[in-house]
Each structure stands twice: as C-alpha cells, then as structure tokens.
Write a structure and sequence with these properties.
The chain is an alpha/beta fold. The protein has helices at 14-26, 45-55, 63-75, 90-102, 105-112, 143-150, 183-189, 240-249, 254-262, and strands at 3-7, 31-34, 117-120, 124-127, 157-160, 167-171, 176-178, 191-194, 201-205, 219-225, 231-236. The protein is globular.
Length: 264
C-alpha cells in the first residue's frame, strides 16, 4: 500500500525531524515530500537541510528557505540592503543571519534552486503557502483565503504549510469550506483520518514538524495513502526540552525556545 509522508516547516528542529522520520518509517510510508521551510528559527539548519537532501525527495521552497538566500547575499554585499517594506523584525533578522552563518555555499545554492510548486503524479500538488501567488507567501487562514488558490489548483489534492496549523479546506464546486472534524481527534487522539470525496478538490495544511502553532507542541505531519486516497494527520512527541536548550546554547532569542514548549 503506497503511502506518502508529507512534511513541512521543519525550521531547523532536528529533534522533531528525527522523531517524525522514525514515525514515517514505523507507519510504512514509502515516500516523503517536503513543503519547505527546512531552515529558520531553530538550532540545526545545516543538519536538517543535509537530512532532507539525503532523502532525495520532492521539495518546494518556503519563505525562510528563500529569505536565507537573500540575506546571505545582502551580508556578502552581492544584493542591496532590504528596503523598509522588506525588512524583517529584529528577532527574525537575528535568527536568519545566524542561520546564514551555518550554511555553506552548496546548501544556499540548493535552497535557491528549489521550485515554488511541484506536481507529484497527477493527484497531488505541493506548495508552501498558496497557489495563486506562491512567491508572495500569503497566509491561508480560512476558507475565504483558500478560495483563490482553488482557482489555480488542477490536481484533486494540494498540500501546503506556512501557517503551522493543520487544516483542511474543500472546494465543493460552488465555494470553499473548511472540514472542521479533522482537528478535534488530532488533538485528543494524536491521529485524524479522513477520505476525500471523489470529484472535489482539497487544499490541505499539513501543520508543522518543527514549530507547531496550534497550541500542541507535538510535531505534525500527514500520511497520504495513494490506494484509498485517505489523508491521515499524525502528532509525534519529541524531545522538546532538548530542542529548546539547543536554541539557547546557539544564542538565538529565548522566545524561539519558549514557543516550542507551548506550541504557539
């Protein structure tokens, strides 16, 4: 039974990534795809990037993957300093500059060459944020936001990340709506499975491996079964205190460590 693990928003959290990959193997996934933001925020950007590259799996570019390339060029004097509207907040800039210092030229080149979208077989599309303007990194927070992406979605399923919150939006042929029954069992049971209705389109946020923001600190990812079409969200516990300590030891902002504990 072919199963594809869909992971996103690792954000240099090696402890979470290793726990998720172990779970991926335990549930019998035969493939992995990654929706971007391999780097940023946490303490192991090179290690996580090297791990993902070793999988030789389909990957799309996230906003942090793009930003680290841009910031590295700014620091090297190859690109001009950011304009006012492009400036990051100081904490994000500090984390990004630290990340740049941990990546070599080959890693930056690899990140820079990642595509913004990918089609995997004829059934699923991959994007980090949204399909209508994938380079703008718009946030899909509700069914209204998802509606525009559906106009650019030609495969039955599109997996995305970016908000770090697992959600499922559906195009019913007339309008976009959210599938609400996914989230409660995911929180209480750690697993939430549903089978998409044939003929409808689904825009699925797989949550975050490395920095969940739905008040649950456990890593989150999706298993897509290509035989029966089912989509299963899974929460995976990992060593959060160790990941927090690594952030502090790296000299990164304490807030980035604290939010791992609360999952928000």
């Amino acid at each position: 039974m072919p199963r594809i693990a869909v992971i996103s928003d690792i954000h240099a959290n090696l402890h979470a990534l290793c726990a998720v990959i172990e779970d991926v193997q335990n549930v019998g996934c035969t493939e992995v795809v990654c929706l971007g933001d391999v780097v940023g925020y946490c303490a192991y950007p090179y290690e996580c990037l090297d791990y993902i590259r070793s999988l030789n799996c389909p990957v799309v570019k996230g906003n942090h993957d793009a930003a680290v390339v841009t910031v590295s060029e700014e620091l090297a004097g190859v690109a001009p300093p950011p304009s006012t509207e492009r400036r990051m907040n100081p904490m994000a800039r500090q984390a990004m500059e630290w990340t740049c210092s941990r990546l070599d030229a080959d890693s930056l080149t690899w990140l820079g060459r990642l595509p913004y979208t990918r089609l995997v077989n004829s059934k699923i599309t991959l994007v980090h944020a949204c399909l209508d303007q994938p380079k703008q990194w718009n946030y899909i927070l509700n069914a209204k936001d998802a509606k525009v992406s559906f106009t650019r979605q030609f495969a039955p399923i599109c997996f995305h990340g970016h908000t770090h919150v697992p959600r499922v939006f559906c195009w019913n042929g007339r309008d976009s709506e959210e599938v609400y029954d996914v989230r409660e069992p995911l929180y209480t049971e750690g697993v939430s499975r549903f089978v998409p209705t044939p003929g409808l389109k689904y825009f699925v946020n797989v949550g975050s491996v490395g920095q969940p923001r739905d008040n649950d600190p456990r890593a989150c990812y999706v298993v897509y079964d290509t035989d029966d079409g089912s989509i299963t969200f899974r929460r995976v516990p990992y060593d959060v205190p160790a990941a927090m300590e690594a952030i502090l030891q790296a000299g990164l902002p304490k807030y980035l460590a604290d939010r791992l504990e609360t999952g928000c």
